From TrEMBL:
<protein>
    <submittedName>
        <fullName>Chemotaxis protein CheW</fullName>
    </submittedName>
</protein>
<dbReference type="InterPro" id="IPR036061">
    <property type="entry name" value="CheW-like_dom_sf"/>
</dbReference>
<feature type="domain" description="CheW-like">
    <location>
        <begin position="15"/>
        <end position="156"/>
    </location>
</feature>
<dbReference type="InterPro" id="IPR002545">
    <property type="entry name" value="CheW-lke_dom"/>
</dbReference>
<dbReference type="Pfam" id="PF01584">
    <property type="entry name" value="CheW"/>
</dbReference>
Length: 161
């Protein structure tokens, strides 16, 4: 299925305020509503026997959040953490669920973009773990993350500890 085929065919909004989240190996495209907060890079509490992409847990607003490396989740090496790195706290959309938020390491500051159907095109690419769709936004490559899959992966790890 191409990325364009995965988009709903009814009531497509004319414009969606979104963010490009910078990674070491590309960028993620998420709706603005998905981002809860950008925080400074901090060392997580180490997680025992965790997958490589599960960097540990952060304390944020009286919650324990999993901190993930999207690069490692999709099969790439762990990026170098530099002084410009930030942490994005993302909402899973399940406010009453077992994991309402999780965190991702970013390689810089997110950039606000306005997405219109004319500017967004699907790209043919195999999706790795955590990827929903590869897209081009005005010719700029990005990945739409599969937030549900990322949430499920974190919950699966937490259940087996």
């Amino acid at each position: 299925m191409s990325g364009v085929d995965a988009l709903p065919t009814t009531e497509v909004p004319q414009e969606v305020s979104s963010l490009l989240l910078p990674l070491a190996d590309g960028q993620l495209l998420v709706p603005v509503e998905t981002l809860s907060e950008i925080i400074a890079l901090q060392s997580p509490v180490t997680a025992f026997d965790a997958p490589d992409w599960y960097m540990g847990e952060l304390h944020w607003r009286e919650l324990r959040l999993p901190l993930m490396s999207f690069e490692v989740m999709r099969g790439n090496p762990m990026p170098t953490l530099r002084s410009n790195c930030r942490i994005a706290v993302l909402s899973t959309g399940q406010a009453e669920g077992d994991l309402p938020f999780f965190a991702l390491v970013l390689q810089g500051t997110p950039r606000l973009v306005r997405v219109t159907p004319e500017e967004l095109a699907g790209r043919d690419a195999e999706c790795a773990m955590g990827e929903l769709m590869h897209v081009a936004l005005s010719g700029e490559a990005a990945v739409i993350p599969d937030l549900a899959e990322m949430e499920e992966a974190c919950l699966a790890y937490r259940k087996r500890r």
